[in-house]
């Protein structure tokens, strides 16, 4: 009977150097490059450039080392951007009577979101298709 090793660490990133993953190392490298450019390039007094470089380094360290709820800060930034980009109000109302499309069955309800036309309401067909499977 053959024995096979069952992988148990599939959800764990490999550590590359000093306990950091490759993703964290790349973020540190980019942060160091931006901090160096912030100190070296701008035509400002040296203390101002040093302060800007220090802020970039602190932001890089926070981005690399802080993992709220066990997830990287980049993931939380994408979640926040998604939250800001999706409207939070949807209104269900009977669909206005019109010529139904041949390839689709007629929909009874539609989702409309405020802030589109002069009346402040616009239909969202993709959400109506998904939400009308009753």
Number of helices: 4
Q: Report mean pLDDT, rounded to a whole number.
A: 79
Q: By helix and strand content, what is the structural category?
A: alpha+beta
Compute the number of structural domains: 2
User: What is the makeup of the main sheet?
Assistant: 3 strands, antiparallel
Helix content: 40-55%
Shape: flat
Quaternary class: single chain
Q: Uncertain regions: pLDDT < 50 for 5+ in a row?
A: 119-129
Terminal residue distance:
52 Å
Radius of gyration: 26 Å
Order of helices and strands: EEHHHEEEH
Number of strands: 5
User: In what range is the share of β-strand residues?
Assistant: 5-15%
Widest sheet: strand ordering: 3-4-5
Describe this structure in words.
With 134 residues, this protein is of the alpha+beta class. It folds into two domains: 15-71; 91-131, no CATH class. Helices cover 44% and strands 14% of the residues. It has helices at 22-40, 46-65, 73-85, 125-131; strands at residues 15-17, 20-21, 91-94, 109-114, 121-124. It has a three-stranded antiparallel beta sheet. The chain has a two-stranded antiparallel sheet with strand order 1-2. The chain is flat and about 70 Å long. The model is unreliable at 119-129 (pLDDT under 50).
